[in-house]
Design a protein that fits this description.
The chain is mostly helical. The chain folds into 2 domains: 51 residues, no CATH class; 37 residues. 47% of the residues lie in helices and 9% in strands. The chain is built from 3 helices and 4 strands; from the N terminus they run H-H-E-E-E-E-H. The chain has a two-stranded antiparallel ribbon with strand order 1-2. A hairpin with a 2-residue loop joins strand 1 and strand 2. The protein is globular.
Length: 91
């Protein structure tokens, strides 16, 4: 969508540099319903960008369960991206 870019730049630098905050807000508002993406703790919490509840000891059980379930999904996606990236490398 907005790349390619050097991989060493922080996710949030690119997020703001390319106006993704506003793009996501508008794009994920569908028929009056705000949909969202789930990002890791590098992202800011927005109606259209959800993040985990952190590692604080004051989290309630439902927050810990949500974080764990979303972490598992995120890990699968990241491993899938790693496989795709490795397969596209020259042999």
């Amino acid at each position: 969508m907005y790349g390619p870019h050097e991989g060493r730049r922080h996710d949030m630098v690119l997020y703001y540099e390319f106006g993704l905050d506003d793009d996501l807000r508008q794009t994920l508002l569908i028929d009056g319903v705000q949909h969202c993406l789930h990002g890791d703790s590098a992202y800011v919490l927005r109606a259209w960008m959800q993040t985990g509840h952190g590692n604080g000891l004051d989290r309630i059980a439902v927050e810990r369960a949500f974080d764990l379930s979303m972490s598992r999904v995120r890990e699968r996606v990241e491993w899938g991206n790693k496989t795709t990236s490795n397969n596209s490398a020259p042999h």
